[in-house]
Specification:
heterodimer, A: 10 helices, B: MetI-like fold, membrane (chain B)
């Protein structure tokens, strides 16, 4: 894109943004409205099809009793610990495999195999081995994050421009300096992509793990609400899940993505550009 | 949604084959030796021989195939149904800017809670069984695919529309020559992503709401401490996913990359 068209599209877009947001609000509002109307029209028992009002009441109730804040905190802690663990391990192994042909040959096939055994399948075995609770959940969720981070780090490392490495080596850089100043920075956009994908799968994985292996958390709230026929609580849990993901996306993933793009001057091609 | 969604690197073949097999041998050996060295009870770690025996038994009495068949049938139904609705609806929504902008936040919300979170509600609505599982899969695949279709159309540069229109393209021409090809790569990425989400949702939904299928088989065995079935189920889930991915998506990827000259 040339500067001229870029400026033009910016000028055209600036007023559009607020329109888009208004339209988005309208979309959400009409879904809520349609939900309420459908409750009035098709008269079903509240446990089967709760109204927005019931759900809101359940939300207030759960908040006042302190259950909701506690569950949100539990889920958030489990999520952060496991995502950090998965990110660290994925990065380490991605660099190892990306930089060494020997390790790539040795570990490549078995990693591909374990990648196919999704975390959901590990949870039953982890329950037998470790039991319910924090450790089982963290292992399963770190496992989800590990693979996308690893594969994307690998792609990033493999697509580093060799000229840059040669230039550094000509100037007498050590292996460590090459790694820190060339390889990791140029692989960073890929690493962030992997982190983003992993974080998305991990969040769903967390909800599932909490349904099976926890006594607290948003996943547990959704699951327990259904077994006790408190469907309003189920819906509160589902909405909280969406809200939490929105917050993770806006407060963590997008800023990190933006920071890497701006910091390293890299703009990634999106779709059909 | 990003393009670089978990594609295992192209396998480097041959000289590496032996080296690559080594870890498998080490893992198998460690697994076989573990009960001899430590005092891990057999219910926690069944021997490879026992898992293999269970595999043979279940294969011979047909129970294994019927579980696998139940799962695959559900996945196929949910996948086809979900995508058949999601892609046309997604394209239709995306054609009109106002409609797309109105629905994007709603779709993104439903996409983020799609799948496993619906299992408990599905149980209330449809009861425990195949109906709930199918609902969850269709739900997962629908929202995942519709979201990537809408994003795909929105990522087409405005310039292309103007170019087509200034050459006198009709609305239909724009759809067939700009919108569909422009969004195609994103739609195909979406097809793959939705399969990955759908597969997890299938296994998870069968565990909680199913009455048959591999997911059900794996979690049900935990109740009876039949760990050999748990391990067998895990290996099967891995092998099935590898097969599905190689059969369905590696060819699609090759064709589109060649046809459209796009490498993601």
């Amino acid at each position: 894109m040339t500067n001229a068209t870029n400026d033009l599209s910016k000028m055209r877009r600036r007023p559009m943004i607020s329109t888009a947001q208004w339209r988005g609000v309208l979309g959400v509002a009409s879904v809520l409205f349609a939900w309420q109307v459908s409750v009035w029209v098709i008269d079903l028992p509240a446990y089967f099809y709760p109204a927005p009002r019931d759900v809101f009441a359940a939300f207030i109730d759960l908040t006042q009793k302190g259950i909701l804040p506690e569950y949100v905190a539990d889920s958030a802690v489990r999520y952060s610990v496991s995502v950090a663990t998965g990110l660290g391990l994925g990065l380490a192994f991605g660099l190892l495999i990306g930089l060494s042909r020997f390790w790539s040959r040795l570990l490549g096939p078995i990693i591909n195999f374990f990648y196919a055994i999704v975390e959901v399948a590990w949870i039953p075995l982890l329950v037998i081995w470790i039991g319910y609770g924090f450790n089982t959940i963290v292992i399963a969720i770190a496992y989800v994050v590990f693979f996308p981070v690893l594969y994307n780090t690998l792609t990033g490392v493999q697509t580093v421009q060799h000229v840059l490495i040669n230039a550094m080596q000509t100037l007498g850089a050590t292996r460590w300096q090459v790694l820190v100043t060339v390889i990791i920075p140029s692989a960073l956009p890929n690493i962030i992509t992997g982190f983003r994908v992993g974080a998305g799968f991990a969040f769903r994985g967390l909800i599932f793990a909490e349904m099976i292996a926890a006594g607290s958390g948003i996943g547990f709230l959704i699951f327990d609400g259904a077994t006790t026929r408190q469907t309003d609580r189920v819906v509160v849990g589902m909405i909280m899940m969406g809200v939490m993901w929105l917050l993770i996306d806006r407060l963590l993933l997008r800023p990190v993505e933006q920071a890497t793009i701006v910091r390293w001057g890299l703009v990634r091609n999106q779709g059909g550009n | 949604m990003n393009n670089a969604i978990q594609m295992p690197p192209k396998p480097r073949i041959n000289p590496a084959l032996v080296t690559g097999l080594l870890p498998f041998i080490v893992v198998l050996a460690a697994w076989a030796m573990a009960p001899l060295i430590s005092d891990i009870p057999a219910y926690k770690l069944p021997s490879p021989a026992k898992v293999w025996g269970t595999f043979q038994d279940m294969l011979l009495n047909g129970s294994l195939l019927s579980e696998v068949w139940a799962s695959l049938q559900r996945l196929a139904t949910g996948y086809i149904l979900g995508n058949l609705i999601a892609i046309p609806v997604g394209l239709a929504i995306a054609l009109n800017r106002a409609v797309a902008e109105t629905l994007t936040p709603v779709l993104s919300f439903f996409q983020s809670i799609a799948g496993i979170a619906w299992v408990p509600l599905a149980i209330i609505w449809f009861g425990v069984g195949g109906g709930s599982v199918l609902f969850v899969i269709v739900n997962t695949i629908f929202f995942s695919s519709i979201y990537s279709t809408v994003i795909g159309v929105q990522s087409i540069p405005l310039v292309l529309y103007r170019a087509a229109q200034s050459h006198g393209a009709s609305r239909w021409d724009v759809i067939t020559t700009v919108v569909v090809p422009g969004a195609l790569v994103q739609i195909l990425v979406g097809l793959r992503t939705s399969m990955a989400y759908g597969w997890r949702a299938l296994v998870a939904a069968e565990m909680i709401a199913g009455t048959n299928g591999i997911g059900y088989m794996t979690l049900e065995a935990v109740q009876w401490y039949q760990t050999e079935i748990v391990v067998l189920g895990m290996i099967l889930i891995g092998v099935l996913w590898l097969t599905l991915d190689r059969l369905l998506f590696v060819p699609i990827e090759r064709v589109t990359v060649r046809r459209w000259g796009l490498v993601s």
